[in-house]
Write a sequence for this structure.
């Protein structure tokens, strides 16, 4: 039996998986990874199921030490400095910590969340089929709260499988795509236009429940009280002060503010990664485009194992990697110029 | 007697959910239609639908867009919603004990003053109500009830409280509700119940269902304390009157 001991960790870091589904009708928040693709990539690298439980690491640094045996891990999502007892740990690549070795991670760069997958996942007691932490309701396992220094994540000893890396098509860029509604008719044409034209920033007071947006005031036509109705990941509700809030995976299952639009599911993880203070825009798309994007996203998720490559051929593919502009830290790992 | 039902509005909630809206307001007929559509979908599951969330006036239908399109699901939902309401099914009824006022209901006296009456009158009217669970939402077990008499309708507080206790029984706008876990709230706190509408490791985990009938009855602080201990140990301290 191996374990990963949390030696140090910042706030907003917790065990997450695909979330708990099926009980939103009882008010149960789904929770789950903010960037599902990044969690799935990390899991694929260590041979886990796509949405097995891993560690979602917030913007600050963290350190983990293997105890009781070797532990195979992989990092994906927002890049950051990562080293194991002085050797560089590349993102989008599996690697193994020997018993006693420590993985040290710096601050997130260019994103908000990194995902640490552990071969064999994390031992815990599923609640509604999930280990995902929802601190507000005290759900999650092995700890029903964000991780703290000293916490222990029990796992299996690393197998003898070869290490692998992953080559993915270039990640989407550009505006965050939304579908208008369900309550876009609670806003004037001018308010909708302002919402779509404005540059927005995510407020530092945001969390896993909701991202507060900083930008122009979006006024309602008929006031801000509607009768509560259901919410989804990416619902953009506009409360009385006109500052939109995008509901994230720890959202309440219902809400009583008009929802002007919804972030499309394929762009939700990319939106979740936008760091506080970085400007971005929304772009309204039709249902056909949104659902086409959802199908492509699902296809990418389910073909992730096809993109695995053995680590041995790593240095032969550096140019291809740089060209694809993926796996930023994997490039950093061999290019001292980009390593800081 | 056949009544023509107006079709609901199909509102996109992104690319993986549809809000089937029967009314913009809190409306008993709309809520009945929501619950009827919810039951119909439970009885004959539609391929691609992952879960449904009934609310006062709409049914939120989560689906997998790789299995069914907005257009195809929308058509299916409209045809299901067109069906006449089934004859009122007998619903089960919960009798919920409540310790009103004092430390358990810190807003009771203020509410009485605002309504120009006495705390006893507020309690008498609240327990006289015959309520229905219109929806469960926001946090686990939070049961929003319809059927609050007009006399007790009261705007929400100007400044919501950041934390209100588990088991809070409160009123806000035209609604009353049973809150299960400690949470922020802008409603007026009338009392507390020892009943857990949600409790992990208990069978059932969730006590109330949308459509259940609810009545309240008063208990004193000592009974609250006893029942609270029993409830913590997993006992269901509400009385169930079968349908």
């Amino acid at each position: 039996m191996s374990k990963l001991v949390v030696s140090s960790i910042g706030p907003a870091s917790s065990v997450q998986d695909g979330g708990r589904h099926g009980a939103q009708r009882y008010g149960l928040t789904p929770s789950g990874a903010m960037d599902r693709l990044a969690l799935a990539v990390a899991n694929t690298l260590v041979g886990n199921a796509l949405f097995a439980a891993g560690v979602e690491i917030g913007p600050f640094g963290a350190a983990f030490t293997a105890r009781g045996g070797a532990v195979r891990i992989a990092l994906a999502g927002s890049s950051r400095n990562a080293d194991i007892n002085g050797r560089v740990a590349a993102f989008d690549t599996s690697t193994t910590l020997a018993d006693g070795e420590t993985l040290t991670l710096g601050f997130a760069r260019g994103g908000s969340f990194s995902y640490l997958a552990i071969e064999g996942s994390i031992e815990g007691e599923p609640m509604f089929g999930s280990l995902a932490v929802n601190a507000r309701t005290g759900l999650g396992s092995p700890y029903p709260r964000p991780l703290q220094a000293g916490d222990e994540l029990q796992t299996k000893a690393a197998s003898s499988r070869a290490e692998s890396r992953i080559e993915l098509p270039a990640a989407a860029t550009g505006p965050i795509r939304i579908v208008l509604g369900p309550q876009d008719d609670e806003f004037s044409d001018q308010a909708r236009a302002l919402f779509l034209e404005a540059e927005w920033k995510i407020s530092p007071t945001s969390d896993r429940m909701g991202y507060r947006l900083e930008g122009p005031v979006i006024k309602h036509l008929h006031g801000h009280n509607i009768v509560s109705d259901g919410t989804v990941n990416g619902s953009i509700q506009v409360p009385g002060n006109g500052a939109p809030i995008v509901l994230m995976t720890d959202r309440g299952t219902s809400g009583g503010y008009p929802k002007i639009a919804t972030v499309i599911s394929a762009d939700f993880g990319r939106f979740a990664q936008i760091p506080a203070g970085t400007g971005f825009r929304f772009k309204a798309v039709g249902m056909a485009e949104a659902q086409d994007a959802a199908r492509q996203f699902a296809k990418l998720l389910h073909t992730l194992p096809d993109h695995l490559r053995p680590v041995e051929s790593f240095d032969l593919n550096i140019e291809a990697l740089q060209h694809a502009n993926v796996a930023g830290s994997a490039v950093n790992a061999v290019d001292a110029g980009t390593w800081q | 007697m056949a009544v023509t039902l107006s079709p609901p509005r199909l509102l996109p909630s992104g690319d993986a959910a549809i809000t089937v809206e029967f009314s913009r307001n809190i409306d008993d007929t709309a809520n009945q239609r929501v619950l009827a559509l919810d039951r119909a979908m439970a009885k004959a599951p539609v391929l691609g639908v992952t879960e449904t969330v009934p609310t006062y006036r709409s049914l939120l239908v989560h689906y997998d867009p790789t299995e069914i399109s907005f257009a195809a699901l929308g058509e299916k939902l409209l045809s299901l919603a067109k069906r006449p309401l089934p004859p009122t099914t007998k619903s089960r009824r919960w009798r919920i004990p409540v310790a009103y006022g004092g430390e358990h209901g810190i807003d009771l006296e203020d509410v009485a003053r605002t309504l120009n009456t006495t705390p006893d009158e507020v309690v008498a009217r609240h327990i006289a109500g015959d309520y229905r669970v219109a929806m469960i939402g926001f946090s686990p077990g939070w049961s929003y009830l319809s059927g609050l008499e007009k006399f007790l309708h009261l705007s929400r507080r100007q400044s919501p409280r950041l934390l209100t206790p588990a088991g809070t029984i409160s009123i806000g706008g035209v609604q009353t509700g049973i809150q299960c876990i400690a949470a922020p709230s802008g409603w007026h706190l009338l009392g507390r119940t020892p009943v857990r509408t949600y409790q992990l490791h208990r069978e059932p985990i969730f006590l109330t269902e949308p459509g259940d009938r609810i009545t309240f009855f008063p208990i004193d602080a000592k009974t609250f304390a006893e029942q609270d201990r029993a409830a913590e140990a997993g006992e269901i301290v509400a009385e169930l009157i079968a349908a």
